[in-house]
Amino acid sequence: MVNKEEFNPIEEIKSFLRRNSNGRSGAIFFFIGKVKRKSKSGKLVDKLEIESYREKSDEKLKEICRRIKRKFNVEDSLIVHAEGIFNPGEDLVLVGVA
Fold first, then answer.
1. Are 7 and 89 in contact (CB under 8 A)?
2. What is the reported pLDDT for 56?
């Protein structure tokens, strides 16, 4: 987990690409999750506040990455989730797989 102010998906993507430029991966995939304007029930979203117990959430995200690598035999994986107060359209999470 990172603070909203520290979350820079473009820099994270650049770093992941550099880390995986060794030719072992045949493809690299990225997903950027954003805050939606409407909830599942159709209500307009004014803001979304995400907070976490950083130590536990970081460990859980690392464990998910380890399981992805084992289960799907991928070279590398990345999950960066931001916390803070977000407006609709703002980036919230980045997932990368190589």
1. no
2. 95
Buried b (16+ CB within 10 A) or exposed e, 3-42: eeeebebeebbeebeeebeeeeeeebeeeeeeeeeeeeee
Number of H helices, E strands in the chain: 2, 5
Angle at 54 between CA 4 and CA 90, to 5 degrees: 20
Helix intervals (H) in the chain:
9-19, 54-72
Q: How many CB atoms lie within 10 A of CB 48?
A: 15
User: Could you say which residues of the chain have pLDDT below 50?
Assistant: none
pLDDT digits (tens, 9 = 90+) for 80-98: 999 999 999 999 999 999 9
Q: Would you state the pLDDT for residue 70?
A: 95
